[in-house]
Amino acid sequence: MRGASLRRARWLARAQATGASAAMQAWLASPGSLTARLVAHSAAFRVQRLHQARAMCLADEAAALGLTAPARVWEREVLLRCDGKPVVFAHTVVSPGSTAADWPLFSALGEKSLGSTLFYDPLVTRGQLEFARIRAGHPLMQRARAALGGDAGADAIYYARRCLYRRRQGWLLVTEVFLPAVRNLSASATFTNAN
Asked: Taking the model in full, what pTM does it have?
Protein backbone atom coordinates (compact mmCIF):
# COMPACT_ATOMS: atom_id res chain seq x y z
CA MET A 1 0.00 0.00 0.00
CA ARG A 2 2.85 2.39 0.84
CA GLY A 3 4.36 1.85 -2.63
CA ALA A 4 1.07 2.81 -4.28
CA SER A 5 0.80 5.97 -2.18
CA LEU A 6 4.33 7.03 -3.15
CA ARG A 7 3.39 6.78 -6.83
CA ARG A 8 0.86 9.59 -6.29
CA ALA A 9 1.52 13.08 -5.07
CA ARG A 10 -0.69 15.03 -2.70
CA TRP A 11 -1.47 18.20 -4.64
CA LEU A 12 -2.15 21.25 -2.48
CA ALA A 13 -3.61 24.69 -3.13
CA ARG A 14 -0.83 26.58 -1.31
CA ALA A 15 2.94 26.37 -1.77
CA GLN A 16 3.45 26.87 1.99
CA ALA A 17 1.60 23.62 2.69
CA THR A 18 4.40 21.60 1.02
CA GLY A 19 6.88 22.47 3.78
CA ALA A 20 9.36 23.87 1.23
CA SER A 21 11.87 26.52 2.26
CA ALA A 22 10.93 30.16 1.72
CA ALA A 23 13.33 30.36 -1.25
CA MET A 24 11.74 27.29 -2.87
CA GLN A 25 8.23 28.61 -2.17
CA ALA A 26 9.17 31.78 -4.04
CA TRP A 27 9.96 29.65 -7.10
CA LEU A 28 6.87 27.47 -6.70
CA ALA A 29 4.36 30.28 -6.26
CA SER A 30 5.92 32.71 -8.73
CA PRO A 31 3.20 34.19 -10.95
CA GLY A 32 3.68 34.54 -14.68
CA SER A 33 5.97 32.62 -16.97
CA LEU A 34 8.56 30.35 -15.36
CA THR A 35 10.51 30.51 -18.63
CA ALA A 36 10.72 34.31 -18.37
CA ARG A 37 11.92 34.06 -14.78
CA LEU A 38 14.59 31.48 -15.63
CA VAL A 39 15.78 33.58 -18.57
CA ALA A 40 16.10 36.55 -16.20
CA HIS A 41 18.14 34.44 -13.76
CA SER A 42 20.71 33.15 -16.24
CA ALA A 43 23.05 34.20 -19.01
CA ALA A 44 22.07 31.20 -21.17
CA PHE A 45 18.67 29.48 -21.01
CA ARG A 46 17.95 26.29 -22.96
CA VAL A 47 15.13 23.76 -23.33
CA GLN A 48 16.42 20.20 -23.72
CA ARG A 49 13.70 17.94 -25.08
CA LEU A 50 13.89 14.43 -23.60
CA HIS A 51 10.77 12.75 -24.90
CA GLN A 52 7.56 13.50 -26.82
CA ALA A 53 5.18 10.70 -27.75
CA ARG A 54 1.89 8.98 -26.94
CA ALA A 55 1.87 7.44 -23.45
CA MET A 56 -0.39 6.61 -20.52
CA CYS A 57 -0.92 9.56 -18.21
CA LEU A 58 0.14 9.16 -14.60
CA ALA A 59 -2.37 8.08 -11.97
CA ASP A 60 -2.43 11.47 -10.27
CA GLU A 61 -2.88 13.27 -13.61
CA ALA A 62 -6.04 11.44 -14.66
CA ALA A 63 -8.41 13.22 -12.26
CA ALA A 64 -6.86 16.62 -13.05
CA LEU A 65 -7.67 15.98 -16.72
CA GLY A 66 -11.25 14.95 -15.89
CA LEU A 67 -10.61 11.25 -16.62
CA THR A 68 -12.00 8.39 -14.53
CA ALA A 69 -8.83 6.34 -15.10
CA PRO A 70 -5.41 6.83 -16.73
CA ALA A 71 -5.63 6.99 -20.52
CA ARG A 72 -3.33 7.49 -23.50
CA VAL A 73 -2.27 11.11 -23.93
CA TRP A 74 0.36 13.10 -25.77
CA GLU A 75 3.28 13.49 -23.38
CA ARG A 76 6.32 15.79 -23.51
CA GLU A 77 9.25 15.90 -21.11
CA VAL A 78 12.05 18.46 -21.08
CA LEU A 79 14.85 19.74 -18.88
CA LEU A 80 15.07 23.50 -18.48
CA ARG A 81 18.73 24.48 -18.22
CA CYS A 82 20.26 27.71 -16.94
CA ASP A 83 23.91 28.23 -17.80
CA GLY A 84 24.19 24.55 -18.66
CA LYS A 85 22.75 23.26 -15.37
CA PRO A 86 19.36 21.47 -15.28
CA VAL A 87 17.07 23.41 -12.93
CA VAL A 88 13.56 22.18 -13.80
CA PHE A 89 12.19 18.88 -15.13
CA ALA A 90 8.93 19.64 -16.97
CA HIS A 91 6.30 17.05 -17.82
CA THR A 92 3.32 17.98 -20.00
CA VAL A 93 0.31 15.92 -21.05
CA VAL A 94 -2.42 16.81 -23.53
CA SER A 95 -5.87 15.36 -22.76
CA PRO A 96 -7.14 12.53 -25.00
CA GLY A 97 -10.01 14.61 -26.44
CA SER A 98 -7.74 17.44 -27.61
CA THR A 99 -7.10 17.99 -31.31
CA ALA A 100 -4.31 19.58 -33.32
CA ALA A 101 -6.56 22.64 -33.70
CA ASP A 102 -6.70 22.98 -29.90
CA TRP A 103 -2.91 22.92 -29.46
CA PRO A 104 -1.52 23.60 -32.97
CA LEU A 105 2.09 24.23 -31.95
CA PHE A 106 2.50 21.32 -29.52
CA SER A 107 3.82 18.75 -31.98
CA ALA A 108 6.29 21.22 -33.53
CA LEU A 109 7.83 22.66 -30.34
CA GLY A 110 11.11 20.77 -30.57
CA GLU A 111 13.41 22.53 -28.11
CA LYS A 112 11.30 25.67 -27.90
CA SER A 113 9.72 26.63 -24.60
CA LEU A 114 6.08 25.64 -24.17
CA GLY A 115 5.71 28.41 -21.58
CA SER A 116 6.54 31.11 -24.08
CA THR A 117 3.59 30.02 -26.22
CA LEU A 118 1.11 29.46 -23.36
CA PHE A 119 1.51 32.89 -21.79
CA TYR A 120 1.22 34.89 -25.00
CA ASP A 121 -1.68 33.10 -26.72
CA PRO A 122 -4.93 34.99 -26.05
CA LEU A 123 -6.96 31.78 -26.52
CA VAL A 124 -5.25 30.05 -23.58
CA THR A 125 -6.94 30.07 -20.17
CA ARG A 126 -4.77 29.24 -17.17
CA GLY A 127 -6.10 27.33 -14.16
CA GLN A 128 -4.92 27.52 -10.55
CA LEU A 129 -1.46 26.35 -9.55
CA GLU A 130 -1.21 23.25 -7.35
CA PHE A 131 1.86 22.25 -5.36
CA ALA A 132 3.36 18.98 -4.09
CA ARG A 133 6.38 17.23 -2.65
CA ILE A 134 7.61 14.54 -5.04
CA ARG A 135 9.25 11.57 -3.31
CA ALA A 136 11.44 8.74 -4.57
CA GLY A 137 8.56 6.38 -5.47
CA HIS A 138 6.74 8.87 -7.69
CA PRO A 139 7.17 8.34 -11.46
CA LEU A 140 8.16 11.98 -11.99
CA MET A 141 10.97 11.66 -9.45
CA GLN A 142 12.17 8.51 -11.23
CA ARG A 143 12.06 10.26 -14.62
CA ALA A 144 13.81 13.37 -13.30
CA ARG A 145 16.53 11.19 -11.76
CA ALA A 146 16.97 9.31 -15.04
CA ALA A 147 17.26 12.62 -16.93
CA LEU A 148 19.95 13.69 -14.48
CA GLY A 149 21.81 10.42 -14.91
CA GLY A 150 20.52 9.00 -11.62
CA ASP A 151 21.94 11.97 -9.69
CA ALA A 152 19.52 12.20 -6.73
CA GLY A 153 19.65 10.59 -3.32
CA ALA A 154 17.31 7.75 -2.44
CA ASP A 155 15.66 9.93 0.21
CA ALA A 156 15.54 13.07 -1.95
CA ILE A 157 12.40 15.18 -2.03
CA TYR A 158 11.73 17.51 -4.93
CA TYR A 159 9.04 20.16 -5.00
CA ALA A 160 6.69 20.56 -7.93
CA ARG A 161 3.84 22.63 -9.20
CA ARG A 162 1.29 21.94 -11.88
CA CYS A 163 -1.28 23.91 -13.79
CA LEU A 164 -4.12 23.02 -16.15
CA TYR A 165 -4.48 25.08 -19.33
CA ARG A 166 -7.38 25.21 -21.75
CA ARG A 167 -7.35 26.27 -25.38
CA ARG A 168 -10.59 25.91 -27.34
CA GLN A 169 -11.83 22.43 -26.31
CA GLY A 170 -8.42 21.03 -25.38
CA TRP A 171 -6.79 20.59 -21.98
CA LEU A 172 -3.08 20.54 -21.26
CA LEU A 173 -1.51 19.81 -17.87
CA VAL A 174 2.00 21.11 -17.18
CA THR A 175 3.94 19.80 -14.17
CA GLU A 176 7.25 21.45 -13.26
CA VAL A 177 9.59 19.63 -10.88
CA PHE A 178 12.16 22.01 -9.39
CA LEU A 179 15.62 20.47 -9.22
CA PRO A 180 18.16 21.31 -6.48
CA ALA A 181 20.23 23.63 -8.74
CA VAL A 182 17.32 26.11 -8.97
CA ARG A 183 18.12 27.25 -5.42
CA ASN A 184 21.47 28.60 -6.60
CA LEU A 185 19.71 30.82 -9.14
CA SER A 186 17.56 32.56 -6.55
CA ALA A 187 20.61 33.21 -4.38
CA SER A 188 22.89 34.56 -7.10
CA ALA A 189 20.76 36.39 -9.66
CA THR A 190 18.42 39.32 -9.77
CA PHE A 191 14.95 38.86 -11.22
CA THR A 192 13.16 41.60 -13.07
CA ASN A 193 9.54 41.07 -13.97
CA ALA A 194 9.63 39.73 -17.53
CA ASN A 195 5.98 38.84 -18.03
From this structure: 0.89
